[in-house]
Write a structure and sequence with these properties.
It is elongated and about 185 Å long. Helix content is about 50%, strand content about 25%. By secondary structure, it is an alpha+beta fold. The chain has 19 helices and 22 strands.
């Protein structure tokens, strides 16, 4: 209305001015004639009066336009030359009235940066709609300002544009306030939406929920739209509504606070324990209370678990006769667990725990020792507090306890706290004394038996080695003579005699191999270990080459070897392991068309497992217990040669290296031998 009134006054002033101008030009000759007559004198007086009225109205209009404190008013003619410039315009545009009158409005104001297209569009808006609103940024007195302008046209009596009125306002502060409000609202929404805790905002008078976030929706299992408009009491179980209404009213009165042990009811019926931090905010026309609901389900579980653990710990201490204590040296306070009281023959919390109470419970003969131990531990960090002493119960019973403690020190090394345990070891000491006596006698008997057993083992090993070694000489003679008979006297022996002699030769060779295997077995347990870094991959490769030379028909078997597997061990004994395992793998894979053997390692968390895997005939794991027994065979000796000693030898060598060996197999699908070396 003010703007319309101002426009009306401006238009009126312009029209009156133009009318006056026209009137004077038209009436001058007439006035001259009228003045010549007395009849025109009265009309002249009236005209003067009319001019006075017009002048008064113009002054009145100018006063109104000049008094517009927050709106600058600039009036131009149809050529955009400034004809009016009020005081507020001087402040907004930084020019005085005298500096701009008669100049183009374009010189003092970038009307949309004088972009021709925008200027044409603005003028078109004025011609069609009578006005145009726009904003520009200007630098006034060294600061950036935002100016909002409204341009309107001044029309004559036939509707033609005869000028323009430009009313402008500095809206910098309002824009800044608006931007701050937008940012504040954005921050509020971000805090609401990304908060981990549920947030509910309610009217303090009605208790109606006005806002919530996604965490709040998740907490009660309802959508945000469903929650807004609910009464705050509907968040809680029905049976607790009245109690919680009272708490709500109390929070509103106090303005802020924390509520614990509150329950919210989920849509599915679950009761969710929460902790609420509430605060009241005054919005001017109303008050709201904002509650931050934190789901403490997990914390309640932890608290319950801690409570249970505390009870279990107390029970465990009671069962073990083991209590804990803590001495705050600075404050002079001492804490005992329930079991410490019981160990000292007192009821829990029968009296306050103090250092004097502790000393009074100690056997008089041990008090000096304890005082000295405590003093030494407090003064020297290198001396631990670990002492055994006697305590006397009020009933006179004497018990033996062991105390251990750690000392906490400040930055200067001064002892500030001592924490430890006290353990009733009376029964343990009695059992220890009895066991000590038994051990003394047992050690003597064990030493004697061990000496006897070691002697027997040495004799047995020497005998076994001697027997095996001494049998080789006559056996070699038998083999030599049987060979001579077969080569030089075969014709005289006849077909049947030659057959018998061939059987004798085969049996002798079989016996020789068994003796050799038995000697290897004996050497694997008798020889000293010489540990060094051994390339196990090279030993496997050499064993493969050696076995294929013996079994030429099996040379086509494919063998994959993981290179450079270095292990600590005895190279000679590990060579025996490689030869036996590879020989077995090649022997039992020979009948496969695509025989394949692989050697590698599996990395476990605590060890390395080496393996030799084949796709041969495998074996029945029902008899796996016999696999490493000497002279035990899991296959027909007629089909596969061997003495049954190889795997036994391998096992003993692996055991001497601190490892273990085992096997997995499936009949007709191959076998895998695993072993570790824990030297």
């Amino acid at each position: 209305f003010i703007e319309a009134g101002l426009i009306l006054f401006v238009i009126s002033a312009v029209v009156i001015g133009i009318g006056t101008l026209i009137f004077f030009r038209v009436s001058e000759p007439m006035v001259a004639k009228i003045m010549e007559s007395e009849a025109l004198k009265a009309s002249s007086e009236k005209l003067v009066q009319a001019q006075g009225v017009i002048r008064e109205k113009a002054i009145y209009m100018n006063n109104i336009l000049s008094s517009a404190l927050d709106t600058s008013i600039v009036a131009t003619d149809e050529n955009f030359l400034i004809r009016y410039f009020n005081p507020t315009a001087e402040k907004v545009f930084g020019y005085t009235r005298d500096q701009v009158l008669g100049r183009s409005v374009m010189e003092i104001h970038d009307w949309e940066n004088i972009d021709p297209k925008k200027l044409e569009a603005g003028l078109e808006q004025i011609s069609i709609h009578g006005g145009h609103v726009y904003q520009v940024n200007r630098e006034v007195n060294g600061s950036q300002r935002i100016i909002e302008s409204r341009a309107s046209g001044i029309k004559d009596e036939v509707g033609g544009l005869v000028g323009y009125v430009l009313m402008s306002k500095d809206i910098t502060e309002s824009k800044q306030a608006e931007n701050l409000l937008v940012k504040s609202e954005r921050k509020y929404r971000l805090l609401m939406e990304y908060a981990n805790d549920a947030i509910f905002v309610a009217d303090t008078q009605t208790g109606i929920i006005l806002d919530t976030n996604m965490a709040g929706a998740k907490l009660v299992g309802r959508s945000v739209d469903k929650i807004i408009g609910m009464h705050q009491s509907q968040l809680h179980p029905t049976e607790m509504v009245e109690e919680y209404k009272t708490l709500f009213e109390k929070q509103v009165r106090f303005g802020s606070g924390v509520l614990t042990d509150i329950v919210v009811q989920h849509k599915d019926g679950r009761h969710v324990p929460v902790e609420i931090r509430a605060g009241v905010t005054d919005l001017g026309d109303s008050q709201v209370i904002q509650g931050i609901f934190r789901d403490v389900t997990e914390r309640k579980k932890v608290e319950d678990a801690l409570k249970d653990n505390k009870e279990r710990l107390s029970k465990a201490q009671e069962i073990a006769h083991l209590g804990n204590w803590e001495w705050d040296i600075i404050k002079g306070t001492l804490f005992w667990s329930d079991e410490v009281y019981r160990i000292f023959g007192l009821e829990p919390f029968e009296l306050s725990a103090t250092y004097d109470v502790f000393l009074n419970s100690v056997h008089p003969d041990d008090r000096a020792t304890i005082s000295e131990a405590v003093t030494q531990s407090l003064e020297s960090p290198d001396i631990p507090y670990d002492i055994q002493h006697r305590v006397i119960h009020p009933s006179g019973e004497v018990r033996v306890v062991r105390e251990l403690a750690e000392i906490e020190r400040d930055a200067e090394g001064k002892a500030v706290r001592m924490m430890g345990i006290v353990h009733d070891i009376t029964e343990l000491k009695e059992a220890e004394d009895k066991l000590k006596n038994l051990n003394t006698n047992l050690e003597i008997r064990v030493e004697e038996r061990t000496h006897q057993l070691e002697s027997a083992n040495r004799e047995l090993e020497a005998f076994s080695y001697s027997v095996a070694h001494d049998l080789r000489a006559p056996l070699n003679n038998t083999l030599g003579f049987s060979k001579i008979l077969l080569e030089e006297y075969q014709d005289q022996l006849g077909e049947e005699g030659s057959l018998y002699l061939q059987w004798l030769d085969d049996s002798s060779w079989q016996m020789k191999r068994r003796i050799e295997d038995y000697l290897k077995l004996a050497r694997s347990t008798r020889s000293a270990l010489h540990i060094q870094q051994v390339n196990l991959s090279d030993l496997i490769e050499k064993a493969v080459i050696s076995s294929k030379k013996i079994h030429i028909e099996l040379a086509s078997i494919k063998v994959d070897i993981t290179p450079d597997l270095i292990v600590p061990g005895d190279i000679h004994l590990l060579t025996v392991v490689a030869e036996n395992l590879i020989s077995n793998a090649i022997k039992f894979t020979g009948n496969e068309e695509n025989g394949h053997i692989s050697f590698g390692v599996n990395k476990r968390a605590d060890n390395l497992e080496y393996y030799i895997k084949d796709n041969g005939i495998g074996f029945d794991t029902t008899y796996i217990d016999k696999l490493f027994e000497p002279f035990e065979r899991l296959h027909d000796p007629g089909k596969f040669d061997g003495s049954g000693i190889g795997l036994t030898t391998v096992q003993r060598i692996i055991h001497r290296h601190g490892g273990k060996i085992w096997a997995e197999s499936t009949v007709n699908k191959g076998s895998t031998f695993y072993f570790t070396l824990g030297v």
